[in-house]
């Protein structure tokens, strides 16, 4: 392919580089010159290069930016992501369709609108794609933060004999149940387990037991609905 430059080309360049001619108009004219050059088997210097402009269609997508670019959430929690689409000059483009994709759906999912939902513990990425351009956001899914719990009271009451007739300990000659009240500043989303250890006067362990709380705790526990019961 040979390189050729005619007087008509020079005149066209001078005309298109005049103030008031937009980059879009130059780009369209430049595309016409390049197409004509390919048909003629020659290589023409582009109009945009001659005018000092970036030879990229100002309407094309040059970059995608996901915000926020990193998020942390817990199981079941949701976070909204947004994607900005920009041209070569950094100007925001509107009206473009964003395709969202979760690279690890087992850790977190994403909706068609960019809403991320935590599924299980782990680290993964969410990808946003617009016209062959893409960007990702880091997503970290973990356990809920530490909760504030306190055993506010525990009380022995007369118990009911188990169906098999076995009662390990007797309180003053009667079957006994230990009712426990647990106060939770922020109730957990999953049931908790409580561990009971009973020691004799010498400090020896005489009984150990574990039960699952009947509820998730509250700010005002009551013996009308104990948080947990141990049959002792």
List keywords for this structure.
mainly beta, 232 residues, 4-stranded antiparallel beta sheet, 41% strand
Protein architecture, described:
The chain has 232 residues and is mainly β. It has 3 helices and 18 strands. The chain has helices at residues 7-16, 23-40, 47-51, and strands at 2-3, 42-43, 63-67, 70-74, 78-80, 82-86, 92-93, 99-102, 108-110, 115-118, 122-130, 133-142, 149-158, 170-171, 174-184, 193-199, 205-212, 228-231. A 4-stranded mixed sheet has the order 4-12-11-8, with no helix packed on it. Strands 13, 14, 15 and 18 form a 4-stranded antiparallel sheet that branches. The N and C termini lie far apart (96 Å).
Work out the number of β strands: 18
| Uncertain stretches | 1-5, 42-49
Radius of gyration: 36 Å
Helix content: 10-25%
The computed structural class is mainly beta
Strand content: 35-45%
Distance between the termini: 96 Å
User: Please, how many helices?
Assistant: 3
Largest sheet: 4 strands, mixed
Element pattern in H and E: EHHEHEEEEEEEEEEEEEEEE
* Main sheet: strand order: 4-12-11-8
| Overall pLDDT level | 75
Give the CA-based shape: rod-shaped
Oligomer: single chain
